[in-house]
Design brief:
The protein has about 160 residues and is mainly α. The protein has a single domain, classed as 3-Layer(aba) Sandwich (Rossmann fold), CATH 3.40.50. Strand 4, helix 7 and strand 5 form a beta-alpha-beta unit. The relative contact order is 0.17.
Length: about 160
């Protein structure tokens, strides 16, 4: 399965020191250079990147269609634009992206997307983690990952954790 990722999922998992979840669900993840730069910038705010730097299963691949990247840049940031352009070029099966506008644009381009919560639910379904709730709490407390109260309740209810 060919997977391309934007920054958010990788960054949030690094902040809570659980990049291993991404590796357990997907054996190889491609990212564009802008996403790599955004992740590397986390080191400047004290995030431990040792697991990221040694992750030989994450490959940096440059999108070739600069015009597509430039067009996407009219509404999205560089990382999202490169990730969507790369995903389109290589016909990836799944784009990992959280941001609402980026997800909408990706879906309008015909891409299948999955966000961090979807990744956690998938990890639980595959018995890689036992519950989603502890991760939601940790993401909120350590990474500032925000979800509305009603959405959290719905997720926990759907997962049998409420």
């Amino acid at each position: 399965m060919i997977i391309v990722s934007d920054t958010s999922i990788i960054a949030n998992l690094l902040v809570i020191q659980r990049l291993d979840i991404l590796r357990a669900v997907f054996f190889k993840v491609l990212i564009p250079p802008a996403v790599n730069a955004e992740v590397m910038a986390l080191e400047g705010i004290g995030t431990d990147l040792s697991k990221y730097k040694s992750a030989d299963w994450i490959k940096v691949v440059s999108p070739k269609n600069e015009l597509k990247v430039a067009t996407l840049r009219e509404v999205l940031d560089e990382g999202e634009s490169q990730a969507i352009a790369l995903a389109l070029e290589i016909h990836c099966e799944l784009l990992l992206i959280d941001e609402r506008l980026g997800t909408k644009v990706a879906k309008n381009e015909g891409l299948s997307t999955l966000g961090l919560i979807g990744l956690l639910i998938l990890a639980k379904k595959r018995n890689l983690i036992s519950a989603v709730k502890p991760f939601l709490v940790e993401l909120k407390e350590k990474a500032g990952f925000w979800l509305g109260v009603s959405l959290v309740e719905q997720i926990l209810k759907d997962e049998g954790e409420l």
